[in-house]
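Quarterly update from the structural biology core.
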Amino acid sequence: MSARRGPRARGGHRRPRARLTAAGRRAAIALLLGAAVAGRAAAQLRLEAESQVADAVTLRLHATNTAAEVMHDIVPEVVYHHRTVVAERVAAIAPGAAHEWRATLPPPPGPGTFPATIRLRYAAGDGRARSGLLVHLIRTPGAPPPDVRATLATEPVSRLSHAAVMLENAAPERVAGRLVVALPLDLRTDPESLPAEIAASGRISLPVVVQNVGARPGDLRPVFALFEYDRDGTHHTVLAEATLPVVGRSGDRRPLVVGLAALAVALSILAIAWRSARARRPAR
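Predicted structure, tokenized:
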């Protein structure tokens, strides 16, 4: 009898642990929700592009809503060869849905690669204006590859940030061209373009200062660096891209820090609750 009552007695002795586990789960869920709100990422549309070159350029734009809310008033704008083309406005794109536009652009002025800068303006669910950015290279058939390679290094931005564009020239002669930095509407740099010259088989690093004029902490903003130059009758555009995380200033970072601390506490409580529940299982 005592041997059979032992497990029930031990189970009764551990009932307070069961109540603590239930309370711990409720607290952990609340803390996890708080951490999720504190670290919530910004809503966005993913933008993609394809092009075909013939007598004219056919450009296809594809926007996918990767957020959990409806995006409204979506308008693409394409800047290509000193000309701006605005596509038709789309009233809304639901979460997980996509929309495609087609635009006809003039043919390239010669052989090579030419940039098309695509900006997407839209409104998030809270009514706040948002924007997307993509730089797409339009390439003529048979265009030779460039001798210059570009890379872009960035750091998180609060109010100001620094980036660096590295240009490497594999050609046996110097290359002279122009560097252009393309940013979304909520970031800014001055100047946006500057001349650059790379020695034969050499490399240079060009600093860029980025100013935050509207991006919010938690946003991930695209940055593009384009180096354009001509060689042997061909126009070359070399493209580098990076993602710029937006962080809060010292006073604005507190909610995120609190959220991360809450997440750590919640995980600790869940671990204790799991161990308690496991200890309560009767031996088989």
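The domain at 42-143 is CATH 2.60.40.10 (Immunoglobulin-like).
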